[in-house]
Design a protein that fits this description.
CATH superfamily of chain B: P-loop containing nucleotide triphosphate hydrolases
Shape of chain B: globular
Strand order of the largest sheet of chain B: 4-2-5-6-1-7-8-9-10
Strand content of chain B: 15-25%
Structural class of chain B: alpha/beta
CATH class of chain B: Alpha Beta
Shape of chain A: elongated
Radius of gyration of chain B: 17 Å
Strand order of the largest sheet of chain A: 14-20-19-18-17-16-15
CATH topology of chain B: Rossmann fold
Oligomer: heterodimer
Distance between the termini of chain A: 68 Å
Radius of gyration of chain A: 35 Å
Number of helices of chain B: 8
Amino acid sequence: MAVHLPRLSTDRLRYSSIAKAGGHPFALYAKIGNAFIITALDEAADKAGLRPGLSLSDARALRPDLVTQAADNAADLALLDEIAAWCERFSPIVALDPPDGLFLDISGCAHLFGGEIEMLRALKHGLRKQSFNVRAAIAPNPGAAWACARFGQARIVTEDNLQNALAPLPLFALRLTDEAAALLKRLGLESIGQIMHAPRRPFTARAGQNAILRLDQALGRAPEALHARRPPPPVFALRRLAEPILTLDAITRVTHDLCDDLAAKLAQRGLGARLLQLSLFGVDAKTRRLRLALGRAEQDAQTLARLFKDKLCRAPENLDAESGFEAMRLDALEIAPIIFHTTDLAPAAKRDLRAEARLMDAICARLGAGRAGHVTLRDVHAPERASYFAPFLAERTHSAMPAPTPPRDNVMRRPLFLLGKSQPIEVIASVPDGPPARFRWRRVLHRLVRAEGPERIAPHWLHAPSARARDYYRVEDQDGRRFWLYREGLYEAADLDAPPRWFIQGLFA
Amino acid sequence: MLGNLEHRPIQAFEASHGGFHAAHSAAAHSPLIEIAPAESSDAPAALGFALAWLQAGALAQDGVLLWAAPEHSFAEHGAPYAEGLAQFGIDPRKLVLVRTQNQLDALWVSEQALSLPCAHVLCTIAHSAKSLSLTASRRLLLQAEKSGARCVLLRFDPLTPSAARSRWRVKAAPSDHAVGTREIGAPSFHVLLDRNRAGFATQSWRMDWNAHEHRFQETPHAGYRMQPEGTANDSTGNPLDGGAFAALIH
């Protein structure tokens, strides 16, 4: 399907203060060469006999009440992109065709809207409601659709009547370069019908490669790929809703239907989805998107629906569903083959790895991907950097080290818990070259009964070149509570400006 | 099978008066227990005891070990440290840690996890949270009973009645060495069985955690023995002062 928005730039400013001023004709101009040239007109200006290409002063002479403003191509393109985003409710494959057109690949989508005619009507109606002038046509290939949207009478062209529909159209309808169009006009050729069956060799020699390619594309003799605005999802399911839906209940129900559709498509291909995106197309022309990442490829509709339900129920206000949604689409953005593990028949293996993976997916879907994971060890000396929390779905940036086995004597050399940040302690009775006899932490006085150390851990020369060496002690107070303390700075260094300081970094069980 | 698990340990529980192992092996089969520190500064000991308790069970059953805790609870006592976990006998790669935004999420995660038959779930009830409601703990109990999973509630909140089958109060215990040595020994706890729906309570023990073999070792030591309120505190040199002792019992 090709969509043409002939008055995109003036429609953009329709409700702005300038254009609204008293129903005067409105035009946009741009500086081309040394002159200000009219580039776009609204309907009133068009009726007044103005044409693009006229110089600004001529136009003002013709219509003294003409309201004008400088054209802004970037804003036009941004608007076109917004419209393309809106159009994604009809098909996931939408391509921009600047300056004022769009292409939609609607293969396999039309039946969801009750056929091509209904789909075309819905799209045009939707865009007109947003006060855009719009023309659109459906044809077997982008070239023909482009031509019919702009110049044709027929709105729906099929393979059978393609030639008949294109024949009467002017040559401009072929998206020719200006030179090629001018040349053909000089040759007295006006319509596509006249060149449709021209002998190829001589025609190519005269009109150029571009002309024959465009002709072939319009007739479906040469392929033309669309450059979709977003990479099209490998698998998707789409639902258009007869009535806009507002309630969470209805949304979850439609989501469930979408999950069913998607799961069926995935199952056909033996695939599962790892990353899904639910798009909710609002009546207010805004699109909400909801992503769901999974730990493993999943193709079970019930599971997917449950995860989305969790996500939807969690923050219904984020959906902002006040005006309702008129279409919903579920894309599988990342797919992977489903690997079926053979069932272990040994009775000892009671673990259900699949259920475990589903549990993790459910947790990540509801709480966010960064919340569940493992504590992981890496090969770094600084204790606060050696252990880190690695969420399940995050990218692994460091290689994890295998964990050491517990020591034979069951004595722990490293604390079970590490404080987020080392906290300074108040040393009451210090002993040179040893751990303090008493210290105060969080207003509690601890009298140390046992201590082992020191264990010197030097700072990382690259990450913290100015840090001082630390001497770590494992200590136990009178009640058996065990702490991991360190002294920063050394006594023998005898630096009077920076005397050694004591910190607590970890707690033993 | 679930029925068996339900009833067998309770008989064992009533039958045995004395050893920690009898009480432990009985309670280890119950779907929901709670562990609380004797004093707030015993939180690391309680955490360690809870982890050790679940690890012993998870290894025996080859189940998932999951710990759900609200994020802010780690600010107080620190976050689990990979190397420390490994030395404590827990492979950090096998401990699933879920750091939730709030207490409610932690309970939700625990309930979800308990639907796995062999799950061993530790749920931290943070100090700042509202006290755990009876309904919330009943939900966990029902889910655990249904699937045969085990749940330990680690309670830092003011202790209110819950659906837990038993309550264990934990206090750090000094290293058990001859006087004079300054060496620190294996992780060591004073444990008091404070409440017990299945029978006797207010028994206390002192034990070490054998991380290498993943089991508790009772180390009877008269001087460090905790005793329930009302009985004569005849041991001399009891390191527990009056305040700590009272906190332990209530």
